[in-house]
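Readers outside the structure-tokenisation community will struggle with the description of the input data as it stands. For illustration, here is how one protein appears when written out as sequence plus structure tokens:
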Amino acid sequence: MASPIKDSIAQAVKDAMRARNKERLTVLRMLMSEFKRVEVDERIEVDDKRVLAILDKSAKQRRDAAQQYRDAERIDLAEVEEFEIGVIQDYLPKQFSSEEITGLLDEAISSTGASSMADMGKLMAALKPKLQGRADMGEVSKLVKQKLN
């Protein structure tokens, strides 16, 4: 099954080429090459679920890199990473608010019966499909630890 998100990114590549938007084109091509790498390595055609996972991972990598550049006082490089995050976020669904994440977390705790840190893996497994691409899983993990302690 083809991915509408992947198709829209492929179209955006063409649009960026026509507009001669070199910076945006670079990011979009990087995303397309990552999709292709996964398809070749795993001999599959990526679906929307997998595309969202790849986009989410790419955004996280850039957030980490931007933070490292800021820590090293390389603001110019951090701004490049942040621009790339902005392009990637154009294709991610609307991010959940803190209240929405907390609500889903409380719901997952009651449905899984999680009560201690030993249940964290079970709880994260229940949350991940609902939150993939719509929340920073690192932040969700911190919230889960706070709730279970």
